[in-house]
């Protein structure tokens, strides 16, 4: 029984390891070169924001932005389903970094990302979270300590009272 548990845990970890490596080394900037905007372009964009200028977004651009925001929310919720603190924090931060890079892309490249990679990355993250939940080891102390009831000294007896 112990051997089986260790084997399953190792299989789970080895299944996640190559994916973690690939996610760590692949960034949106390599797939979409316009994410590396020139400093002058970024400066103009920041000045427009500072001066209060609003760019007029077309209906298609608003739809793309709404889809990107929805996908980002789904991926962050999925990343928060990991039981292990380290995996959870890693994937939440990774999703935030990916979508920060995606925000710098043009509308056409964002649409291309949504059509080709977005849903696939979400499904991949959902599968990893499910496997992590199925074969998770003991919960981390801080995760369990937050769920325990608080104790307080009360009624003059000096004995702790559990609420």
From TrEMBL:
Residues 143-163 are annotated as: Disordered. InterPro entries: Complex1_LYR_dom (IPR008011), Complex1_LYR_LYRM4 (IPR045297), ISC_assembly_LYR (IPR051522). Residues 74-123 form the Complex 1 LYR protein domain. Residues 1-24 form the signal peptide. Residues 152-163 have a biased composition (Basic and acidic residues). Pfam families: Complex1_LYR (PF05347). GO terms for cellular component: L-cysteine desulfurase complex; mitochondrion. Keywords: Signal. GO terms for biological process: iron-sulfur cluster assembly. It comes from the Eukaryota. Coiled coil: none annotated. Belongs to the complex I LYR family. PANTHER family: LYR MOTIF-CONTAINING PROTEIN 4, PROTEIN C6ORF149. This is Complex 1 LYR protein domain-containing protein.
